Amino acid sequence: MSSPLTHGLPIVDAPTPAPLVLPGAVGRAEADRLCADVRAQLLATGADVVVCDAAALAAPGLAAVDLLARLELAARRAGGRIRVRNPPPGLRELLQLVGLGLEVERHPEQREPPSRVQEAVEPGDPAL
Fold first, then answer.
1. In Å, what is the CA distance from 32 to each residue of 8, 19, 99, 106?
2. Helix/strand number for the chain, H first, E second
3. Does residue 53 contact residue 85 with C-beta atoms inside 8 Å?
């Protein structure tokens, strides 16, 4: 078997830049630098998404929401958007509460057992 010859370049997804790690506490100057980093990553790589790792954000509050809103605005102005990775507990709900519809990566529940695993066997149960 052989595949037909195709002309041109193969279709390749745009690269996603390395995650931008957000610090725990962010002041005005730090927020401006992070916005510049978001724009620079989008323009340098041609990607349309910058992943922002929010694991270090201490407690979700309005300061975190303000930072994420600024980063999203900077990304939109550069033709892209941000995606929040590892949000602290409560940040997703707070973003929904204030109406900031950011894309947040979902992780499966850690306590959820794998599919098709039987946790306990009762006498008389058939074997699987």
1. 41, 17, 23, 27
2. 3, 4
3. yes
Q: Name the residue with tokens 């309005």.
A: 62
pLDDT at residue 105 in the model:
85
What b/e readout covers 24-39, taking b as 16+ CB neighbours within 10 angstroms?
Answer: eebeeeebeebbebbb
* Dihedral angle, C-alpha 26, 29, 33, 35, nearest 10 °: 70
| DSSP, res 80 | -
Residue pLDDT, tens place only, 52-100: 999 998 777 888 999 999 999 999 999 999 999 999 888 888 998 999 8
Say which residues have a Cβ less than 8 Å from residue 113's Cβ, sequence separation at least 6.
119
pTM: 0.70
Q: What is the sign, positive or negative, of the torsion defined by CA atoms of 78, 93, 67, 21? A: negative
Contact status, residue 85 vs residue 52, Cβ threshold 8 Å: yes
Highest mean pLDDT, choosing among 36-40, 43-47, 57-61: 36-40
- Report which residue type is found at 126: P
